Amino acid sequence: MLTAINTLVQNGLASVPIRAVARTHKHQGEIKMARGLKIAKGNSVQVDSASSPTRFTYPSSTSSSATVYRGGTGGIASQDTQTLVIQVNYKDSAGNAYTDGQIIAQKGEKQFNVQSAAGGAATLSRCVLTPVAPGSLTASQCSIKAVSPTGDLFYAAKISDRYVWTSGGDSAYRYPYLLGTTAAVTYDDTTSTTGVVVTDSVGGTYDNVYALVEGF
Questions:
Q1: Domain-wise residue ranges, the chain
Q2: For residue 203, what pLDDT is reported?
Q3: Higher-confidence position of 37 and 125
Q4: Are 145 and 185 in contact (CB under 8 A)?
Q5: Terminal Cα distance for the chain, rounded
Q6: Confidence tier at 24 by pLDDT (50, 70, 90)
Q7: Rounded Cα–Cα distance for residues 98 and 134 (Å)
């Protein structure tokens, strides 16, 4: 069974409990620690604005769809015209709240330098990624909104350029993900009855495999 799990995880086609990943790593050494988050710095898709050349399409409303690359990056949205970047809600050290946070740099597994898209460098703050709704954040915390492959809202406990983790310790899940606008995430959370259904650029279909992470 562990061999089967390894095969699915390595191909990005399964979400498994962290407990199962840890056990597989101990006995077979096939699962590696997640890479850090890529930070987009320009418009070159292959270099720094996406983590995969494969494009994926999913329903973003009752009448439209969105096409994006797998995974996501940090960075300033205005400098990255090719793709979405991850959107962050955060509070600075004084407790001021921002809903349009952009990740400027990663400083630790769950620590990021972020700034407001509207406020710019004057709002730069270091925050700790915390899996709570924006209204529950305290000073120097940030949160990232996501929807699981089956359409359940959650806030990321950890994120890399390819995977997003739920909270829950040994019961947490790791999902491959795509980025979606706030409207798309809301649609998959509140309206869609099928979860996140994805097709790729070579004709593959993935039902309830990819999570959707809020971006802009």
A1: 1-33, 35-214
A2: 86
A3: 125
A4: yes
A5: 39
A6: very low
A7: 9
DSSP string, the chain: -HHHHHHHHHTT---EEHHHHHHHHHHH--PPPPP---EE-SS-IIIII-S-S-EEEEE-SSS-EEEEEBS--EE-GGG--SS--BEEEEE-TT--EEEEEEEEEE-SSSEEEEEETTTGGGG-EEEEE-SS-GGG--TTEEE-EEE-TTS-EEE-SEE-SSEEE-SSGGG-EEEEEEEE-HHHHHHHHHT-SS--EEEETTS-EEES--EEEEB-
pTM, entire model? 0.82
Whole-Å CA distances, 22 to 6, 25, 76: 11, 5, 34
pLDDT in tens, 97-148: 999 999 999 999 999 999 999 999 999 999 999 999 999 999 999 999 999 9
Residue (of 25, 5, 24) closest to 14 by Cα position: 5
**Distance between CA atoms of residues 193 and 41, nearest Å:** 37
Residue 1 has pLDDT above 80, yes or no: no
Interatomic CA distance for residues 177 and 78, integer angstroms: 22
Residue 105, both tokens:
């740099």
Task: Count Cβ neighbours within 10 Å for each residue of 130-162 and write b for 16 or more, e otherwise.
Answer: bbeebeebeebbbbbbbbbbebeebbbbbbbbb
Contact 193, 184 (CB under 8 A): no
